[in-house]
Design brief:
Elements (H helix, E strand, L loop, with lengths): L2 E7 L7 H12 L3 E7 L5 H10 L4 E4 L4 H7 L2 E2 L1 H6 L4 E4 L4 E4 L2 H12 L8 E5 L3 H12 L4 E5 L3 H14 L6 E4 L9 E6 L17 E9 L7 H8 L3 E3 L2 H16 L6 H9 L1
Parallel strand pairs: 1-2, 1-3, 4-6, 7-8, 7-10, 8-9, 10-11, 11-12
Antiparallel strand pairs: 3-5, 5-6
Bound molecules: 2'-monophosphoadenosine-5'-diphosphate.
């Protein structure tokens, strides 16, 4: 019998995680079966318990349950504690472990796959929701010169900065801004962690925000978002979140199985479809 894993979310039918993890299992010769669990909004904890009772070894958690997965976890990694978010649950006999691999997935895609140096650079992170909490710590770990958090609702950006000032050893580069305040500012790396692209919108960025050679990264994958089109027209290099998706999955696979799959071929394959 293979060991059982799944992704849990709402919606979840479109998830590429089963394809990615099946490929990892094949590549690393791990006896793993990976499925999909849809949970009604009020039934996340019950569905997770049912999956565990049926012998499930671990779950990837996607929207909108990462915060509830954090609460469900009985032991959490330091990076999950920092992010207040869990996307990887591991079920042991007597304890539920919680981890988050989103931030390391983004940073690995930026630094290893896209060869983008973050140390000493000016980074703009747009959005102050769960996606930004997930990646802020690992971005600060890279010691950027600045990490500006921009959000429509600036109070949420300020709250995020305040949180990471308390929990991260290197919060000095952090500051919060509204989009209107960005006029005249210039960045080397601009990351879109808002959900705006999913509805065909983009944050209200001013012209001239990208320095020459800048990278514009959208965590949304599989489409050219308005932000990516804007960045391209402004002369920036663009990337979608396909690489982050595969890298966070590889880190989860490593958490569960202790082996690290190759990611390059799969990222290239997913970019083609
Ligand atoms: P998640 O936890 O998935 O990040 P969320 O907590 O709902 O989702 O956060 C979504 C983020 O996208 C927020 O930062 C939101 O900005 P507000 O906090 O001001 O609402 C941002 N967002 C969504 N649509 C947007 C748009 N059209 N323009 C700019 N920001 C947008």
């Amino acid at each position: 019998m293979p060991d059982l894993y799944a992704v849990i979310g709402n919606p979840v039918a479109h998830s590429k995680s089963p394809l990615i993890h099946s490929e990892f299992a094949r590549e690393t010769a791990q006896d793993v079966s990976y499925g999909v669990v849809f949970a009604e909004i009020d039934a996340f904890e019950a569905e997770a318990a049912r999956f565990r009772a049926a012998g499930g070894r671990g779950l990837n958690v996607t929207v909108p349950f990462k915060h509830r997965a954090f609460a469900l976890s009985q032991k959490r990694t330091p990076r999950a504690e920092q992010a207040l978010s869990v996307n990887t649950l591991a079920f042991a006999d007597d304890v539920i472990y919680g981890d988050t691999t989103d931030g390391v997935g983004l940073v690995r895609d930026l630094t290893s796959n896209l060869q983008c140096v973050l140390r000493g650079r000016r980074v703009l992170l747009m959005g102050a929701g769960g996606a930004s909490y997930g990646v802020c710590g690992p971005l600060l770990d890279q010691m950027p010169a600045r990490l500006v958090i921009a959000n429509r609702t600036v109070e949420k950006a300020a709250a995020l900065c305040e949180h990471f000032s308390r929990v991260h050893p290197n919060p000095a580069p952090l500051s919060a801004m509204q989009y209107e305040g960005l006029a005249g500012e210039c960045f080397d790396v601009v990351i879109n962690a808002t959900s705006a692209g999913l509805t065909g919108e983009m944050p209200a960025l001013p012209d001239g925000i990208f320095d020459s050679g800048a990278l514009a990264y959208d965590m949304v994958y599989g489409r050219i978002t308005p932000f990516m089109a804007f960045a391209d027209a402004q002369g920036a290099t663009t990337a979608d979140g396909t690489g982050m998706l595969v890298e966070q999955a590889a880190e989860s696979f490593h958490v569960w199985r202790g082996v690290r799959p190759d990611t390059a071929a799969l990222i290239a394959q997913l970019r083609r479809v």
